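Table S2 (text version). Query chain:
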Amino acid sequence: MGEVVRIVVFVMAFISCNALLDLSGVQEIKGTWMRSTTLPCTYMPSEGFTQQTLIWSMERDYGTSTIFRRDDSGDHVLLSQFRDRVSVPKHSPGDASLLIENLEIPDSGHYTCQVIWRSKNNSLITKEVTTTVKVVKVAATKPVIRASEPGLTFPPGARASLTCVANGSPPISYRWFRSVPGGKALLLSSQAELAWDSLQPSDTGKYYCEAENRVGARAVQQSDAVQLTVRDAPAAKQAAGRDAVSEGPPVATGPPPAAPPPSLYALAAALGGAALVALPAALLRRRRNREEPLYEVTFHSTADVTRLETDVEVPVKHLHKETNSKTETSNDTFTMKDNGHDSICIRKNPEYENLVNAMESEYESI
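Corresponding structure-token output:
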């Protein structure tokens, strides 16, 4: 009775391990010429069973040939046409998938993955799965444009790039164009990427790309055009920035204050500082009687003043006697120089001289 139980347990364990070690794959794969493809072959590792040998073989009209073999001595590629083009993951237990790079038309065929496990009692279990591969040439698809940054609006001086992406059998050639309204588009580049180191407002415009490969009639595929814009920050943001910078005490923005009439400068030059101080004081010391006549002083406008060139000396008649100077005659003169302002020429006026004389005689000085 005990012997029967042991046999039943062994059979159940074998069936369970057999199920765990079952290989998974696909029946058919369509590969693209000159691209890569992976032929899946996976299983669930089971305790007590160790992978002993892995073999990938290929069956064609003329027979079956071993492509790849992995055993205790290492990995071996046995067909020269697959050398440097096939590989199997090394550090992924349960994954025996075959990667084939740069697919060629002769790579089409039936591929079989065979795995052999050894149990603790040295018994061997062999499983295999077959996948059909068909390599086809695929014409280039309509390309799409991808930007290096989200959006297509950039500030001046920014770095940016546009990439043209198309599917199909390589090699795929690309060309970049810039649309010209009412004219022929400008060819910019023959690379997949169009890049700018420093964008300028003149780069604003519409761009598109073309993709082409050597399949079939070599039809050229064109992408949709994209609008690239180079501009400064919006005006509202600039205004806000200026407002933030200009915070502080108010600044006068109106016209500059009007300068005193040039005729006042002429009067100051003619009378001298002392006379200007003494005259108002004298007027305050004595009030005029009603019977006394009024005197009128007229200042001539700047239109009556002759403009002189800088540093030109001009003789001008003295109108009064200055402190510590001799009594002046009608022929006495003094000189004025232009120091950056309009030069003024003072002319002796008989009426004004009579006025000064009358004021000197009628009012006492301080």
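Notes on Table S2: Helices lie at 2-20, 235-245, 262-271, 273-285, 350-362. The chain has five helices and 20 strands.
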